Amino acid sequence: MIFSILVNEGPYQHQASDTAFNFAKTVLSKGHTIFRVFFYHDGVNNGTRLTTPPQDDRNVIAKWTKLAQDSELDMVVCVAAAQRRGIVDEGEAKRNGKDATNLAPGFRISGLGQLIEAGIQSDRIVTFGD
Amino acid sequence: MLNIINKTPWDRPALDAALQCADGGSILLIEDGVYAATRGSASEARLKDAMGRLKIYALGPDLEARGVADRLTEGVTVVGYDGFVDLVAENKTCQSWL
Amino acid sequence: MTIKKFMFVNRKAPYGTIYALESLEVVLIGAAFEQDVSMAFTDDGVYQLKKGQNTKAIGIKGFEKTYGALEDYDVTKLYVDQESLTARGLTAEDLCVPVEVVSRAELGKHMEAQDVVLSF
């Protein structure tokens, strides 16, 4: 079965991203497919590589990055939500005249259409938020 | 439909709204939502009333994390992430009541 | 393209948090993809449609007008939960757009009929 996942909150403040991660891992381990993980609202904050959690805590962003790389997950950060919150890749930095980028490996920035497409292409879409 | 609730019934009206809208299907309590499934709480009666027409599940890892796994309301089924994925697959749609 | 039934469920009030505005943005994109889009407003979500919003003094862009523009995007199925309205001292006359006021049981039936339900 084809799943997609929508993450609507950032890391640490809410459990949403942790639950979504555990869910995604289990989906894959059971032999299902994940069409896309889409990050919206404050969920785009899961896509910054600049977080430095305490050493005895989990690194939520690094966990997503590793899952994306190990499982070839398509992880999309919503461009409109990302612009509001300062999540930037090289293309966005150039386009908007920003002096830095912070998008973590494994993530890409794209439009809201990718969320609708995920709804169309997937058998199930599960939202994690507040 | 699988209705996913992640807040306590005292924080948000999400559980009540889902219970009143849902006609059949299942409720899955996750994150802070699992407190609704604890014995002796004010939400116990509401859950028991709903059990005739809805199946109620609670996510085990969230119950354990909160120290309430041994206080589960009778009739609530505990599932792990494995069971969570199965519930999503078995139901035609799911809705997270955020 | 496949056409699916998308329902966007709004359960949060506007301005206090950004969910209502960003939900509207998804609705408009869903309509642009020519999907069968409907919206539900329940609990504090009914406040999104309260007419006469003026955000000038709080410094946040208002978006009451966007609900009025939904019709231009062929988004005409707006379901509002009667119980949530009543609990907040509101009636359909207090809302900025024409809606279908429904009971919770009816709302549940509409939800059951969807392919995709996204709640914000």
Q: Could you explain how this protein is built, in words?
A:
The complex is a heterotrimer of chains A (130), B (98) and C (120). Chain A has 130 residues and is of the alpha/beta class. In chain A, 38% of the residues lie in helices and 20% in strands. Chain A has 5 helices and 5 strands; from the N terminus they run βαβαβααβαβ. In chain A, helix 1 runs parallel beside helix 2. The relative contact order of chain A is 0.26. The mean pLDDT of chain A is 98. Chain B has 98 residues and is an alpha/beta fold. Chain B has one domain: DsrEFH-like (Hypothetical Protein Ychn, Chain: A), CATH 3.40.1260.10. In chain B, 32% of the residues lie in helices and 19% in strands. A 5-stranded parallel β-sheet of chain B has the order 4-3-2-1-5. In chain B, 47% of the residues are buried. Chain C has a single domain, classed as DsrEFH-like (Hypothetical Protein Ychn, Chain: A, 3-Layer(aba) Sandwich), CATH 3.40.1260.10. Chain C contains 4 helices and 5 strands. Chain C is globular, with a radius of gyration of 14 Å. Chains in contact: A-B, A-C, B-C. Chains A and B meet through helix 1 and strand 5 of A and helix 4 and strand 5 of B.
Mean pLDDT of chain C: 97
Catalogue the unreliable spans of chain C.
none
CATH domain fold name of chain C: Hypothetical Protein Ychn, Chain: A
Please tell me what the overall shape of chain B is: globular
Which pair of chains has the greatest number of interface residues, and how are they split between the two chains? A-B, 21 and 18 residues
User: Total helix count of chain B?
Assistant: 4
Count of strand segments of chain B:
5
Number of helices of chain C: 4
Helix content of chain B: 25-40%
How large is the radius of gyration of chain C?
14 Å
Secondary-structure class of chain B: alpha/beta
Main β sheet profile of chain C: 5 strands, parallel
Form type of chain C: globular
Topology-level CATH name of chain B: Hypothetical Protein Ychn, Chain: A
What is the spatial order of strands in the main beta sheet of chain B? 4-3-2-1-5
Q: How many discrete domains of chain B?
A: 1
**Can you identify the CATH class of chain B?**
Alpha Beta
